[in-house]
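FORM 12-B: Structure-to-Sequence Request
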């Protein structure tokens, strides 16, 4: 089992397969994607070695991320590799949803078990303003198709003071009759968004208090859950989640490791650097990979230090999928 010196076990792998994104969200890529590498992204054969090595060390859940993973033409091949790996019992994906309506059936046929979709506003004009694309209605239709196929859906919305802070009631109205989990995510400071962060950061603590005062109860997390504190209400079809990286002891429940699209292990979203494991992946030896992962895990720190304004090597969240 992958376990660090603080006793945290890592059941969950977040695997970025591209850093390219076709959206230009104000909090992540306001100027659009800027190519600053050779775009020599992990090949399917390397991903097979990677996922096998992690699975043999106790990882049971893989999340495919980007950039935007649907930009890869071999996405379904990657999903099939993950789903067919012994020990992996859950394959998830995070997407901006631009191909959701057209491609969800293919993803499910390839082995997808659950889906996270980014929707920062339910107002079509605000959505277009944030992302640069008028795709909200298509994405909402895609969510309906995913739910009809039995795929659990979580919707991610980044809280931003000047954009969607006042949309809580609209989101709650949506959850009244829609069986999804909406996760409100505190805006995080990265290397290139300091001014935007200072102007737009909203703490989730006040929303948590409002939910609890309105009859929402907190769910107990399982071992492969993400960092969200999730809440349910008997009168609502959907659930609410809060991801608050600036809250006390946020890192105590860390259960995931990240691999970048270029084959670097990131022990934390805000680590100072990625650790290159690609030569081992290219050799196709998952036993050597297991040994390397266990050795590198000794450098994982107790916390991300984000609360001290230290953002590490993460210029923007599209680099390794958040």
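FORM 12-B RESPONSE
SEQUENCE OUT:
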């Amino acid at each position: 089992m992958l376990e660090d010196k603080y006793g945290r076990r890592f059941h969950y792998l977040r695997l970025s397969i591209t850093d390219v994104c076709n959206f230009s969200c104000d909090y992540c890529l306001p100027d659009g994607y800027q190519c600053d590498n050779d775009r020599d992204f992990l090949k399917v054969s390397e991903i097979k070695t990677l996922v096998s090595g992690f699975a043999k060390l106790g990882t049971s859940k893989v999340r495919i991320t980007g950039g935007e993973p649907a930009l890869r033409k071999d996405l379904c091949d990657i999903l099939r590799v993950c789903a067919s790996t012994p020990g992996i019992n859950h394959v998830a994906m995070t997407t901006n949803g631009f191909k959701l309506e057209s491609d969800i059936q293919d993803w499910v046929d390839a082995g997808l078990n659950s889906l996270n979709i980014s929707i920062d506003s339910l107002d079509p004009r605000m959505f277009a303003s944030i992302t640069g694309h008028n795709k909200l209605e298509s994405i909402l239709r895609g969510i309906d198709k995913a739910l009809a196929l039995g795929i659990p859906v979580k919707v991610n919305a980044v809280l931003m003071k000047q954009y969607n802070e006042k949309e809580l009631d609209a989101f709650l109205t949506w959850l009244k009759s829609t069986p999804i989990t909406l996760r409100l995510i505190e805006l995080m400071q990265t290397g290139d968004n300091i001014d935007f962060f200072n102007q737009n950061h909203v703490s989730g603590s006040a929303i948590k208090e409002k939910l609890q005062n309105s009859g929402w109860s907190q769910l107990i997390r399982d071992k492969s859950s993400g960092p969200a504190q999730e809440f349910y209400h008997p009168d609502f079809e959907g659930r609410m989640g809060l991801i608050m990286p600036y809250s006390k002891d946020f890192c105590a429940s860390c259960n995931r490791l990240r691999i970048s699209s270029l084959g670097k292990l990131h022990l934390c979203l805000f680590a100072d650097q990625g650790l290159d494991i690609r030569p081992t992946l290219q050799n196709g030896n998952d036993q050597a990979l297991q040994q390397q992962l266990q050795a590198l895990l000794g450098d994982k720190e107790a916390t991300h230090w984000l609360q001290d304004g230290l953002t590490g090597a993460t210029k923007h969240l599209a680099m390794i999928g958040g």
